[in-house]
Amino acid sequence: MTETTSGPARGSRAKGSKANKGLRIERIHTTPGVHPYDEVEWERRDVVMTNWRDGSVNFEQRGVEFPGFWSVNAVNIVTSKYFRGAVGTPQREHSLKQLIDRVVRSYRAAGEQNGYFASAEDAEIFEHELAYAVLHQVFAFNSPVWFNVGTKQPQQVSACFILSVDDSMESILDWYKEEGMIFKGGSGAGLNLSRIRSSRELLSSGGNASGPVSFMRGADASAGTIKSGGATRRAAKMVVLDVDHPDVEAFIETKVKEEEKIRALRDAGFDMDLGGDDIASVQYQNANNSVRVTDEFMKAAEAGEKFPLRARMTGEVVEEVDAKALLRKMAVAAHVCADPGIQYDDTINRWHTSPESGRITASNPCSEYMHLDNSSCNLASLNLMKFLRADDSGNQSFDSERFAKVVELVITAMDISICFADFPTEKIGETTRAFRQLGIGYANLGALLMATGHAYDSDGGRGLAGAITSLMTGTSYKRSAELAGVVGPYDGYARNAQAHQRVMTQHADANTDAKRVDDLDTPVWAAATEAWQDVIRLGGKHGYRNAQASVLAPTGTIGLMMDCDTTGVEPDLALVKFKKLVGGGSMQIVNNTVPKALKRLGYQPEQVEAVVEHIAEHGNVSDAPGLKPEHYSVFDCAMGERSISPMGHVRMMAAAQPFLSGAISKTVNMPSSSTVEDVEEIFLQGWKLGTKALAVYVENSKVGQPLSAKRTEKKVAAEPEPEKVIEYRAVRNRLPKGRPGITTSFTVGGAEGYMTANSYPDDGLGEVFLKMSKQGSTLAGMMDAFSIAVSVGLQYGVPLETYVSKFTNMRFEPAGMTDDQDVRMAQSIVDYIFRRLALDFLPFETRSALGIHSAEERQRHLDTGSYESSAEEMDVEGFAQSAPLHSADAPDAAVPDADAQPTAAAPAPSEAHNSTELVEMQLGLNADAPLCFSCGTKMRRAGSCYLCEGCGSTSGCS
Known about the structure:
Residues 158-697 form the Ribonucleotide reductase large subunit C-terminal domain. The protein has 958 residues and is α/β, with parallel strands linked by helices.
């Protein structure tokens, strides 16, 4: 039996009765007397994961057991990341059944021990329902659960931590230690440094204080060292500073100054790409920075008024600054290097359920978890596409009833985990056990909206997203109140009861005021309204088991585990995806959500097929046959010709935020044409629309991005024309549309690349294209710009031998062995390129004078003492017409998918290793992302963090 995602739910209503009576668990998906495993067809697979750069095997385990409907990528990631035991030993897990049993049975045992279930039968139903939901990719716990639960190591279940630091050296050193231990365990932490006195204040000894920015250097170095000590991911950390701190300007400028340093080092020849070898010499690169702003500051900035900076120890005003100018500095810095982000302090604390126990001052590294200092949050996310159903007539609906029951099940499990969880510090353990913060969320929102015919940036899209979020959080707090009636409220509830109930009322009021848009969101809003009514009623009676219930996390690795097309609250990356195939190989395939969307919009099967074929060929829907222009926006994505506007991202965040306990992990992508004023406006609108935090990224703003030839040409064209004078100049001899050429692959010192050399029909090299295989975006960009310069020079008559004489023997890294028999060693990539060009295009006499010979010529010299050449060796005519490298214009063959949807597919280009690289190649764009430390492929954004689709590594904390 295969997975089922539609049809009526069989009910899963857990009733909270009198204290210590336990919960009655009813079934959702399972059948009495039948284990979920017995309803699935299992198969054996071999998992072999390689590093694409050198072909080395990163991981290998053969004969693993998974359901047949699990994708290759999901199988690879779960096997390599989550199976426990040494590979090659009998103790190594080899089946998904073992993984699920290890975790789910631990949850059941803890639930029974702590009085959560009314009977053994209820405990068994709980176990089976939880196993079914994981097995069918309906939801997933965050990674620490799969790493640790049911093993002999500490049972850490949380991915997100918030620390605290006070104004003392002892506390600062404790911060370094606690943060380091969290990084060592593969998690992330955030904290606010605003309690540390500024560099403009005095120490008790009379000297000047160092200020928080100076202590950030030590923490940054520690994070970088721990990362480089063998971890496959960067340390994830967040540093926050209040806007009224006297050192706030220095804090804002930390990364801007380092960006200038990066540019200088790059220009001097150092590898300063994201993930490059020399980037470690630059400071402040291991943390996300955010400024915590208040309503008072934002109002002053909008009105152009003064704003006071206050001493940390006395509260006295140190200086009054122009608020608008300070906000502008934040925007300038964010425009240059994406930092700092912004967090809205008053908005955050208005929704705080436990203010009597302390303010919310910071967040986790990805900005979605916000609660008390020295606390943690364990996450779990639901796959929204599993709740999209269609009737016999093809009418779609969101299964809100079954969704609510799964939320109840997952929240129950998440709360149980706190009963047995271990924590990195005792302070974090005490706070978490006292407040029991949870972070349920979802993934695949972007796919769901497209599949239902909603544009991401539309009232309908925001309406459905808001309704689902409201239902999720309302149901979570309803279950939390039921749990409080069974096992008691959280320890801090009594002190915060009034505030907690006030926040519940705020959520309920926002739900009431929300706009109902269409037939899809209206029923979900109705279910959410009923849930919030139960929350108020049951919470008033029992209190709540959890101080926090929901967040929207990046859902990085677990999103891949659930085979989600989109992460967290993000839109789709692009319409064409990279897909691995069973048995090896890969293909590019049009998203399965596209046909669903077209069907929802009323297109006939033959029209759907035509649009899908157009997307497969062009990568977008512009001018697709038969597609109405008013429907184009449904298929807008994060990247590409029709990318979603920055405010579209902000408006989506604002639609979901009133229905979340925490916040949203998301970066607002902005085009390279965006100005500082545009960034400032995004900051202002984020505050006005009620979001809790924002980060922006302006395309191509960071140094770790390839240079844009188009932008350079535009700049030159915009310059005023010089005064006309008569002078003699060389005339550019452009190549004809059809030109002979040759493409050569090469490797120099482990760096892979391709060179396409095109010549004039009557002989003579006319242009060169260089493509570095993801060695680093800066290197690839410089090679691209370099090849353009050489090509233009050739077309203006610069002899090839001049280039060869100038550029051969240039020495810089990467250098070393090559895979070319004729050029076995190269002192640099440039040295190799011009030796190869000389061999292919220069006459024997010319290159012989330059000391450049082929392997055959060198052998002949050894045999005969002469370099005599033949006409064949010097012939450069007759090269086959070569197609543009990595062309996406080849026709794609239709391949039927499992659902018999009209999905066009084609072999993935050989240089694409995941969807991000495929999008870059097809659309000519450069994604802001580092290379994966584990497998070398380019990562993709997932919320405020990065995710590797190849091996599941993340730069975040989920």
